[in-house]
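Bug report (template v2)

What were you trying to do?
Predict the complex of my protein with zinc ion.

What happened?
Run completed; filing so the output is reviewed.

Input:
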Amino acid sequence: MNIEQMNKALEDGRVDVDTKLEFISASEINNLDAGGSIDKSPLYQRPYTKRDGQKGYFGDEWQKSLIVAFLRGKFIQPIHWRLNPKTNKWEIVDGGHRTRTILNFIKGLLKTPNGFTFEWKGESYDLGNKFWSEIQMESPKLANHLLNYNYFFVIKYPNMDDKDARKKFLTLNNLHNMKDAEKRNAYTSDVATLCRTLGAVDFSKHMIFNKYDGGKMKYISLKSIGRETDAFVTSLVYLLSEGSSWTEGGNRVWNELYSVDESLTDDGKSKFKLNSVISKEAKLLIQHLNDMVIDNAGRKGYGKQYWGAHRMLKYVVFLKWIFSKYDVNSLTFNYKKFVDSFDKAVADIKIKHKAYQRYEIINNKISIVSGTESTDTDALEYHHTKVFSGGTRIDDYEFILKHVELNFDLSKFGITKGTVRENFEESDVWDTWAEQDFKCKKCENDITRSDVENDHIIPVKVDGETSKSNLQLLCKDCNRNKSAGMDTEDLLTILQKKGGTLTPEQIRKIGEALAV
Ligand SMILES: [Zn+2]
């Protein structure tokens, strides 16, 4: 029986028009994929955090066993596809990891395991530790056979809307203990889209959320699986949306947020649209958090273990407080200093926190404003370490953040207000002016000494130093146009000035500045 006959038999037996069962050969699925007809990473799928294609990586044990099972024609779990009416693509509701592994094997990103042999037509083939292209080259007939006579069993849903797709995903995945954050990810509401866009390992533009290595996050101590980074963004978005009325975090309130937002999204009334106030605020805060983590990366004591969800969120809420007092655009952060001062303010907290006790700053002192009625000496008390790196209630936040507020001043926390104009050495300015032939470095118009504006090629905010090697002279117009970012011309200038002497750290900084 060939594949057409099998599919005909499956088709003939069906009366349900909403489900189609089909065997699809590896070669056909590969063609569909190459033609862009399959959405391998739809919203419902878990992010694919395998390292396929990375240097020296040819698949983990799970991937290699799957490749063997597939090539041997063993039964592998069915794959579920629904036709997404918006994209007109087959979206993988379940089975993305299986599909991607096999497709990536065919593409040459993964290898078979050592010692894999295959008997075919009375001959034995050594297929161990090989790329697909090697098998094709060495045994073309066998390769052709494997590609055309090994099938995915696909369950297709041609008429399934977003909500039903979510239900299907949840039903299929409840089989393997899905986390709350993974269930929430199945929503297509505005809040779900926002959290995915900012936080998901497979969507986010922020390095802290999208860089992982060997299945582990590179910069923070969240997991790259289980949608932990999305959950972090959800917790932030929840705080922003509840404002002063939030008291407690946790899956219960976050799930509620998603569920309520679904009908609001349908009515066009969600406050989490991508250009909404909350979205912009969340994005700004996460950008700063990202810079904070990356700027401190590699410093002793501030490795990924330091950056857990609770601590990151406390920093972010504190940033929100700062941004409520100062115009964010006028601030330049030195995040090493910021984190040092923040940490010191926390470490200096002498008192212990009692659960539910609330705080305010009155007359320059931390005062307990409620929760004091309990004279129970056995009431649970916490040291600041426990509340800083844990604690989801508003009283936990107040306990930490009011103490930091009390110690806060801009310069102590490494924040510079207004445009930064550190002074270059006067002699360096004269020398550079002459080296530039008394012209603006960008537009090449002549500039007089009084028109000369000193410009940091690598901006101060990404630690560009105030030294001759980072100095260029611009006319007023060009300097104004440049603002605080960096462009490719600047990159060329800095390479000419410092070529070959740049450290990897400086190169990373330049990359960041270019991305601003
Ligand atoms: Zn100019």
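What did the reviewer find?
The two ends are 60 Å apart (CA to CA). The pocket of zinc ion is lined by residues 440, 442-443, 445, 474-475, 477-478 (CB under 6 Å).
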